[in-house]
Amino acid sequence: PVLVVDFGAQYAQLIARRVREAKVYSEIVPHTMPVAEMLAKNPAAIILSGGPASVYAPGAPQVDAGMFTAGVPVFGICYGFQAMAQALGGTVAHTGNREYGGTPLQARPEAGVLLKDLPADLPVWMSHGDCVTEAPAGFTVTAESAGAPVAAFEDLVGRRAGVQFHPEVGHTAHGQEMLTRFLYEIAGIEPTWTPENIIDEQVARIREQVGEKEVICGLSGGVDSAVAAALVHKAVGDQLTCVFVDHGLLRAGEAEQVEKDYVAATGIKLKVVDARDRFLGALAGVTDPEQKRKIIGREFIRVFEAAAREIAAHGDVEFLVQGTLYPDVVESGGGTGTANIKSHHNVGGLPEDLKFALVEPLRALFKDEVRTLGLQLGLPEEMVWRHPFPGPGLAIRIIGAVDEERLALLRKADLIARQELTAAGLDRDVWQFPVVLLADVRSVGVQGDGRSYGHPVVLRPVSSEDAMTADWSRLPYDVIARISTRITNEVAEVNRVVLDVTSKPPGTIEWE
Ligand code: XMP
Prior knowledge:
Elements: E1 2-6, H1 12-21, E2 26-30, H2 35-40, E3 45-48, E4 74-77, H3 79-87, E5 91-107, E6 121-134, E7 140-145, E8 148-155, E9 160-163, H4 175-186, H5 195-210, E10 214-219, H6 223-236, E11 240-246, H7 254-266, E12 269-274, H8 276-283, H9 289-313, E13 317-321, H10 326-334, E14 357-359, H11 367-376, H12 381-384, E15 398-399, H13 404-423, E16 435-438, E17 443-447, E18 450-459, E19 462-463, E20 471-472, H14 477-490, E21 494-499
Helix pairs in contact: 5-6, 5-11, 6-11, 8-9, 13-14
């Protein structure tokens, strides 16, 4: 892999993605990892990220000079550039010339490889207080800016380069080209991280891990579990059985999509458990959001466990597939304690006595890569591009107690919102579009010359990168208007549609 050494940058994940966009596999490692451990991973190159510290600050993370004697190509960005310059005997100074944001760069494209053929005047994204004033011996300076006399350097013999600015952000013109040049031309790496290769590699790995054993996978209807299962199926065929629990809290058409489209596309053995009565029974009269979540989580485990035991009765199931993604892996390594805002439920919370080994074929991937794989594996587009949907389903979008009637009503309103969003071609512009029924609220309206006393629904379209923070989507008013008109016309019990204009924080995406 290409290792991205994280010096506390906001951008480490972004760098890793950019490298992958150049079809080169990358992993993020903390700067506290000893160099020997990094080298043990056999890196094709190391990229030192930016970071908040000044190289002169007490306790500032340093670069172990051992990194530069191992013959591994190194690229330094911002803080990583300065730390690299310092470790190799260059000079880093506090000049008092801070540069933040868009900055003009004077490049000498002909002087090296990194900026070759690019314009001499390049707008780049800077964020630094210190700067490199003298490059280490053996390095050619290929760019400068007003606040950075050495803004880019390279040493082709030692296969090392660095830049003061951030090539990974969109505001830097030709940034991706610079990264690519480093990877291909300076480090000599071949672009082999392609969907076809990822699939082949994972299939081989899964076969090796699973052997002749049986495997099960809980499908949520979401893209991660769908792609994970499709990969495992490609690897071990009918040794895999998928379990789909219909808890009655799904949206219109969802169970059918899994039962028909998914099976048609993959040929996977699917066990659908109709647990609608059981869930609705357990939820009857419950209004507290946390209690709803706990009940659903508990029932889910029971149902899944029973299904797993039934499958295990005909063979010995030993493996459980999970759709864990790379950001989950990185974040759980970071580990600062966070408050429990909501109890999320996943298939992950299985009881101890069901002892499965985990198969996690997506552990190395970001969401967009998972989507690309899904398409490559032949999954339907609607499935691959589905918006995230919470495990507890519509139960946490009905504010108040959950029952069949309210679910049916919300399903209708939700379907209208989704249809209109799709018709407007905006599916990929929003992260998620919850529709929430305020089942215990009524307001007065006038419909067909008569007084109505119905329920409001809330439209909650949000844009987000990762669901940790979000903003309300500025959908065109005419789209909102169409949704509103259709919902109040077609869903008799609803006489008012309101738009949620709260960001996260302080609001969460879901209402419960
Ligand atoms: P909140 O409401 O916390 O949601 O801003 C963040 C993201 O998580 C989804 N969500 C869940 N997903 N099980 C899930 O699998 C859950 O219990 C759950 N609760 C919320 C939510 O839809 C959003 O994408």
